[in-house]
Amino acid sequence: MGSFSKATGGAGAVIITAAMATPAMAAGPRIVRVACSAPALAAAITAANVTAGTVLRLASRCTYSITTPATAATGLPAVTGNITLVGGPKTTVRRDPGAAALFRVFDVAATGTLRIAGISILGGRTAGLGGAIQNAGHLVIRQATLAGNAASNGGAVANSANATATISRSLFSSNTTTSVGGGAFINFSTLTVIGSVLSANTAPINGGAVNTQPGGMTRLIQTTVAHNTSGGLGGGISNLGTLALDRTLVHLNRGSSGGGIATGNTNVTLRRSVVRNNIPDNCNPLNTVPGCVG
Predict the structure, then answer these.
(1) pLDDT, tens digit, for every residue of 51-93?
(2) pLDDT (tens digit, 9 = 90+) per residue, 184-228?
(3) Which of 11, 235, 240, 271 lies 20 to 30 A from 36 at CA?
């Protein structure tokens, strides 16, 4: 195949093989269409890391199935630049179920910004943090599904110290941990979840869906936390940092105590939110969460 060359300001030339990706626009944001293959996606991320903002348009009705990881721990090259991934109908990025190695799907470095829209991220497996995504930089997820991922902590997403993550209109389902908790999220810094559903996530110890560590700030806005399970405290949510719920429903979660919310401090606020029908109780310790009864 031939190739296209596109100069980038001061960074030399980025060579984009036509079989992998083709420029979609000459002006405005640098938009690259990525062919339906995991190696093409890996090459496109590597190239995008050295440009000042790139939109990678993934193929619709395509599964980017990763068999051989880019590193020992991560399926795709680490995001060190400013990258947006946009999917079409039924776009999926996953660790191939037949892959021999265990690895997460994405890693966002401290220098990186990753925006994801309209993509399902499935089947990541790691003995470390973040089965789908480990974030040390800036992460924005919109209209995405993260399901069936597993990690020691943060089955879907691990949001590291000094990182920020904003999630909107997304589904986190059937993600699991093997250690402390956070079936969907473990948060060490700033996490905001808006208009999303956290359902059927599990953890053996604390926080079936969300585990907020000391120094972490988690805000759930117009979000549903339901049918999550913890073998320990916080069937839905475990908090050791700061937790704020706004117009959020926490129900039908199960834990050893604090079936809805378990907190190690008094830094939990509920605003027009409902915590009910959790097992064996709604909040623990009793009377530490204003507005939460039983």
Answers:
(1) 988 999 999 999 999 999 999 999 999 999 999 999 999 999 9
(2) 999 999 999 999 999 999 999 999 999 999 999 999 999 999 999
(3) 11
Question: For the residues of 87-136, what is the DSSP string, one character each?
Answer: --TTEEEEE-TT-SS--BSEEE-TT-EEEEES-EEE--B-SSB-SSEEES
CB 153 within 8 A of CB 180: yes
Amino acid at 20: M
Q: CA distances (Å), 211 to each of 53, 122, 185, 230, in order?
A: 32, 20, 6, 11
Q: Could you tell me the domains of the chain? A: 53-284 (2.160.20)
Look up residue 60 and give its two tokens: 């619709």
Alpha-carbon distance values, 30 to 57, 155, 253 (Å): 11, 32, 44
Given a contact cutoff of 8 angstroms between Cβ atoms, the answer to whether 212 and 189 are in contact is no
Q: 172, 197 in Cβ contact below 8 A?
A: yes
Cis peptide before 285 (omega within 30 of 0): yes
User: Order of strands, edge to edge, in the sheet holding 249-251?
Assistant: 62-66, 91-95, 120-122, 145-147, 171-173, 197-199, 224-226, 249-251, 274-276
Instruction: Return the residue matching tokens 């704020």.
Output: 244
Give exposure, 227-261, as e/b (b: 16+ Cβ within 10 Å).
Answer: bbbbebbbbbbbbbbbbbbeebbbbbbbbbbbbbb
> What distance lies between CA 263 and its chain's CA centroid?
23
Is 229 in contact with 255 (CB distance < 8 Å)?
Answer: yes
The distance in angstroms from the start CA to the end CA of the chain is 66
Query: Residue 219 has which token pair?
Result: 């805000």
Give dist(CA 272, CA 291) in Å, integer: 9
DSSP letter, residue 286:
T
